[in-house]
Amino acid sequence: MPSYRAVLQITGLRPGTAPERVMDAAREALGSMRHVEAHQIDVVRGVPQITLRFLVEAENDADERAAARAAALAMQDAVEDVAATGRLQVLVRRRGSWVPV
Question: Which domain of life does the protein's organism represent (predicted)?
Answer without folding.
Answer: Bacteria
